[in-house]
Structure prediction request, 123 residues.
Amino acid sequence: MTAHSTAFADLLQRAAEPDRLHWQVLRQGVQFHALYGQPGVGPAAALLRYAPGATVPEHHHTGYEHILVLQGSQRDGQGHYPAGALLVSPPGSRHNVVSDDGCLVLAIWSAPIEFVTDACGKR
Prediction:
């Protein structure tokens, strides 16, 4: 088996048993399990776990963001993304994210995101 195959198999195993992972708070209602790097600091990848009703406010992508929805669903102003959906946000794009019923996603960032609004919704 190659390193890629082994890493992919491990990722699926981790995602299948999220309660066995070490989670850290990313934002209120959103936790992360880092795969490499640190979210918000350069290139990074993580599993993100959204509680039901969790939101991520409007943010701007300084690099590519790839989101693969593994469980549940999330939505933004462009659409609704159920399990199995892959969302690619190119540099310069912006959106907010909501998960009405909660979800687990694989997030891969080539660069940090920048929030358009602060925690109180102010620009």
Residues 22-115 form a domain with the Jelly Rolls fold (CATH 2.60.120.10). The chain is about 10% helix and 55% strand.
